[in-house]
Amino acid sequence: MNKKRSMVILSVLLMMSMLLAACGGKNAANSGSTANGSGDKGEVKTVKIFQFKTEIVEGLNELKVEFEKEYPNIKLDIQTVGGGADYAAALKTKFASGDAPDIFSNGGFAELDMWQDKIEDLSDQPWVKDLVPLAAEPMTKDGKVYGMPMNLEGIGYVYNKDLFAKAGITETPKTITELEEAAKKLQAAGITPFGNAYQEWWLLGNQGISVAFARQDNVDEFIKGLNDGTQTIVDNPQFKNWSNLLKLTVQYGQKNPLTTDANTHLALFANGEVAMMQEGNWAQTLIDNIKPGMNIGMFPMPIDDDAEKNDKLTVGIPANLVVNKESASKEEAKIFLNWLVTSDMGKEYIVKKWKFIPALTTISASAEDIGLLGADVKKYVDENKVYGLQSSKFPDGVTQEFASVIQELIAGKSDVNGWMTNMQAAWDKLKK
Amino acid sequence: MRSRKLSQFGQQLFFVGPAVLFFTLVMIIPFVMGMYYSFTDWNGVSGQVAWVGFDNFKHIFSGDPDFWKSFGFTVRFTLLGVILTNLVGFFLAYFLTKPLKTRNVMRTVFFMPNVIGGLLLGFIWQFIFIKGFSTMGEMTGWSFFELPWLGDATTGFWAIVMVFVWQYSGYLMVIYIASLSNVSKEVLEAAEIDGASHFQILRSIIAPLIMPAVTVSLFLAISWSFKMFDLNLSLTKGGPFKSTESVALNIYNEAFLNNRYGLGTAKALLFFVIVAVITLIQVRVTKSKEVEA
């Protein structure tokens, strides 16, 4: 009897699983075409937007109202998941479950390669010709443009002009020696020179280390060389120099850099406890939230004593909006993207509300609009004194690996040579 | 006879069916799909999935020191976590079955951490470790609070252990309380009359009688601590320099950060087998120690 019963249960189980497996298969097959509802004419279509910039959610929702007024046949459905890694995982889940968004973010370069068979070629869009050349780079492949860069972001040392003046520093440091002198002066004036949020992987392994890459004679060749084994990070002078800068910031920084996160160093900075921190111009809104009207500026991160080469700011494209190729409402999605950068409303939000440095030449931005940091970055961009942010060219996962080996160096678990070996090993482990 | 069988089948379908349906939907199917992906090089996005046979497993065994490092971390963590949660849980239960006035309040208080989600707990404790402890250190000058909490491998490890024990011992306490209050009063009284000391009673009478609870609690604690993910993510994110990366976090990172979904599922499958074997052995061993009064 007992045996019989277990047979029955087993057969039920099998039957159910077969049934479900069948259902699963059907769903997967249909997901591409039905994910976005039916495409009948005259019907209201929904464009699903999935992005990760949490700081623009509010503005995006206000824009949505305006846009829907102008285009009553298109509805926007905006979803946001913050944080780099969480966003990537969430996006994959969405695609896997057949709930793919129509517009989503992409980082360009290596990420473009990964998603390329899902995204639409946007080369024929009217705004493409107006892109700032640097901004178009990450999403350009074989002469085609696949995404709309949201903005430009400059990364360097954000500094407190008042504290610099108090310590008697008149000019921003252009070389590592000058930087150390400035740090000494600050310390003598009783101010902690650096706030280091070295708990954050992106600050080290993504934005920080980018300088060491950008300073190579030809960075694309160098990265190619790393991938095919003809180049190495070990004993590369630029990396050695970069580690000197890192040491300098730790030496003249607040204590416990490895448990300090970005919120903490922002708070330290806004309260005038530290004079400098590695940040990007997005910090403007964050600082304004803590203490509005601070007298601040930004200068590039110098790794050696070549004043000219050091005076270039790292500039990256944090996100590009791309259109899902298989979307049923991709035309509507394109309409929205175009509206975002050509309508007065969209332009105003980009510069004034989000304080973005526009990636299109047709959008103008003044210092009052984008804040002091933005204005500094824009000055560097206009003078073409910029290095591209290199990290999107790295193999997947390398930025995080870099961050942990850099943290080892900070903690004294490895010396500079060991560190460079570890950096190389991290690359080798993850290269394709 | 035949119709009776049919109605029995109908009954089983009715009662067991829904559970089986959902279990299959959320456990079995993903598990089987995961098994398939562990033999491929899928990156999580691309439409092209290539069969690579046992390459992923070979890679884990030959070329992935990080995985074994995180495995070592998880084993150390599990050992401590299991022992401490059970000890704390048991002794909480032992004292809270004594006639105390604040008994019910205390029970609630100790169970409370379980009600809050692990992720949230992690963020709260991160704040306590970094801000709270350093302030306490400034006030008291005790070196314990002045350690670089979460900032190096040792404090990171102990911080996770502490929060884990704090979170889960309350749950085990409830199991132990249920079991302790079932120990028959007569046996205890008889032992007391025979002149047994408190320790003797605890060791020779209570311990064997609550063995079924020990089996369950050990099993729960082992599987919790092996699979620990949320605390790890919110407290240290595996840092600094990957020193506190649990296997679950390593798998997640492999699949979603390194975009090597196939390799990630291979690790997950391997991990499943290891945990299954360990818990099976544990249940066997403790079951054999169960007695009846």
Count of DSSP-assigned helices of chain B: 13
Largest interface: A-B, 37 and 39 residues
| Gross geometry of chain B | globular
Please report which band the strand proportion of chain A falls in: under 5%, 5-15%, 15-25%, 25-35%, 35-45% or over 45%: 5-15%
Number of domains of chain B: 1
What shape does the CA trace of chain A take? Answer: globular
Structural class of chain B: mainly alpha
Number of spatially distinct domains of chain A:
2
Biggest sheet character of chain B: none
- Helical residue percent band of chain A: 40-55%
C-alpha Rg of chain A (nearest Å): 25 Å
What is the mean pLDDT of chain A? 84
The first-level CATH class name of chain B: Mainly Alpha
Please, what is the oligomeric state? heterodimer
CATH domain topology of chain B: MetI-like fold
* Terminal-residue CA separation of chain A: 57 Å
- In round numbers, the mean pLDDT of chain B is 87
In short:
By secondary structure, chain A is of the alpha/beta class. Chain A is built from 19 helices and 13 strands. The N and C termini of chain A lie far apart (57 Å).
Q: What does this protein structure show overall?
A:
The complex is a heterodimer of chains A (432) and B (293). Chain A has 432 residues and is an alpha/beta fold. Chain A contains 19 helices and 13 strands. The N and C termini of chain A lie far apart (57 Å). Chain A folds into two domains: 45-151 and 318-363, 3-Layer(aba) Sandwich (D-Maltodextrin-Binding Protein, domain 2); 153-316 and 386-430, D-Maltodextrin-Binding Protein, domain 2. In chain A, helix 12 (262-270) packs across helix 13 (283-290). In chain A, the strands form three sheets. In chain A, strands 7, 8, 9, 10, 11 and 13 form a six-stranded mixed β-sheet that branches. A five-stranded mixed β-sheet of chain A has the order 2-1-3-12-6. A two-stranded antiparallel ribbon of chain A has the order 4-5. With 293 residues, chain B is mostly helical. Chain B contains 13 helices and no strands. Chain B is globular. Chain B has one domain: MetI-like (MetI-like fold). In chain B, helix 3 (65-96) runs parallel beside helix 7 and helix 3 (65-96) packs antiparallel against helix 10 (211-227). At the A-B interface, helix 1, helix 3 and helix 18 of A face helix 1, helix 5 and helix 12 of B. Chain A: Keywords: Cell membrane, Lipoprotein, Membrane, Palmitate, Signal, Transport. Chain A: Belongs to the bacterial solute-binding protein 1 family. Chain A: This is Carbohydrate ABC transporter substrate-binding protein. Chain A: Residues 1-21 form the signal peptide. Chain A: It comes from Paenibacillus faecis. Chain B: It is found in: Cell membrane.
